[in-house]
Amino acid sequence: TFIRDFFAIKYNPKAHDPESARIDGGGRCYPNCASDVWLRSCEQEIVEPIEGHVSGHIPTWLNGSLLRNGPGNWKVGEMMFQHLFDCSALVHRFAIKNGRVTYQNRFVETETLKKNRTAQRIVVTEFGTASVPDPCHSIFDRVSAIFRPDSGSDNSMISIYPFGDEYYTFAETPMMHRINPRTLATEGRICVTDFVGIVNHTSHPHVLSNGTVYNLGTAATKSGPVYNVICFPHGEQMFEDAYIVGSVSCRWKLHPGYMHTFGVTERFFVIVEQPLSVSLTEFVKASLSNQQLASCLKWFEDKPTLFHLMDRETGKVRYTFQSEAFFYLHIINQYEEDNHVVIDICCYKDPEMINCMYLESIMNMQSNPNYASHFRGRPLRFVLPLGVENADAVTFKDHPITQRRVVKSFTMSGISTRLQPTKMKHSESNYENITNMAINKLQEEEMLEYCKGTEESDEANEKLDGETMVNLVTLEGSKAQAFQLSNRSILVRPELLCDWGCETPRFNYDKCLGKKYRYFYAISSDVDAENPGTLVKVDVVTRSIQKWCEANCYPSEPIFVASPEPETEDDGVVLASMVWGGLNENRVGLLVLCAKTWTELGRCDFHTNGPVPKCLHGWFAPNAV
């Protein structure tokens, strides 16, 4: 298959992981990568803004606050969280005004943080960490807690987004926290379940130019779980006025998909349903037996990824496409062109990278020669044809069809720790054939036939049999493919955007969301690169990349800010917070790059009174000065 062969052959771990000659005298597999930047804990908040040292030039027109969110503290008393996603949320603020910059950070005052602080131990189960058992909670308490949305963790440590003039921190639970964009004080908590009845939502809603916000959430119905697109209309009562635009039924009633983001174009919402699912039976077991939530994730590697296109006006699903399985966290952008929908995604062959973010994995990465291959991702472009006119034909030659097991599940197992058993429990249902629960499933033989293909059509000619299949993608200049099978399902094959690992992608959001675009900006996800802290600018037209890096420096997600009167898509600056590896844990900085030339304009360095952890996602608030 294209995706599986691409990562297995072109990026074969045996060929690309560090050879012994590259391992330094300390026995480290990745001597250029400082994993300690992810292991730091903020010991003391910086409530009052501190001044930094500016070098170079920060444009005077750039005024506002770069707000950041991410893991802030691994420790609770003598205990440690076991996964990066469990750490207490810490928000950062770089306030920029007239060429000067200040910095501050504060913890999000979640109920989970308060409970843990009071008990001085972990008393709320997180994604990868089981809580200390509470002898006062009976089995009946645990059963009733399953049906209360506020019974679990409310640790919103992934992202931050505006709702009108208010800013909220997000995770994938329905709990959001309102943050003052000037003081970083936590001013309130919202449970989205109270307004639209969802049990979780993505960490990345879409904020339109008119202030309306859309997000994707999962809800329980009489007929099974569904994915709901939720609209929060711009106004004074965005949550009270929220409503469901439309719904998509989950393909498996007992395994709703894991959703971290979704897409929006001028006419469609794009819902990408990957075969990483949340097992509802395992969720009940985990809740009753106090296991970490990661034990509920199941990966079905031989099941296709589905692309649902929902009409924005009617809320009805107009099209569903399929590709072979891949894992993703972030969609770059998506748009419509010449009766096609184009969607660019940061793809991985499987979700093993989630396991790489356990505490033990991060601490031991320098002795793990396979660590880099688990993080091996590439940006891929999928083109979804809405019509079949003027299609080109591709002829496939004979090949023997061999049978193989179609259904195979993989548990996202945690690393053995003091807080949870060393061996994950597998239920018998993990190995049942769940094909009968699938909607619009592929016929087994057609899936096998398609999976014999490779990136180049001449290689496919040697492997596939004597059936003529039509490439439905007619978009000029595109190398992506789509084939309609005899059961009328359409199977798509992506093309490579650039040969570099890209994560936390951003672009000119205000101008290009849901529209044809040319540039996106990202951090490197290749931990075995010469400089793992590289920032990249990708030209999706020429497929070229520009890089910025500095030794031992690890920038965050690059956020584009347009100049006051932009003439081109990349007319502006890119902002990124910076931390440094090694003994520089008390140092943090703000980097300002020229988005057009990808060169440094200026920076501001701060020396703090304690460690500053690396953050995940953020937002530029132009009015919060």
From TrEMBL:
Signal sequence, start to end: none
GO molecular function: beta-carotene 15,15'-dioxygenase activity; carotenoid dioxygenase activity; hydrolase activity; metal ion binding
Cofactor(s) the protein requires to work: Fe(2+)
Designated name of the protein: Retinoid isomerohydrolase
PANTHER family: BETA-CAROTENE DIOXYGENASE, CAROTENOID ISOMEROOXYGENASE
UniProt family annotation: Belongs to the carotenoid oxygenase family.
Cell membrane in keyword set: no
Stored InterPro entries: Carotenoid_Oase
Gene designation per UniProt: RPE65
Binding site residues for Fe cation: H204, H260, H330, H617
GO biological process, one term: carotene catabolic process
Cofactor binding note of this UniProt entry: Binds 1 Fe(2+) ion per subunit.
Source organism of the structure: Ceratitis capitata (Mediterranean fruit fly)
UniProt keyword terms in alphabetical order: Hydrolase, Iron, Metal-binding, Oxidoreductase
Keyword flag Metal-binding: yes
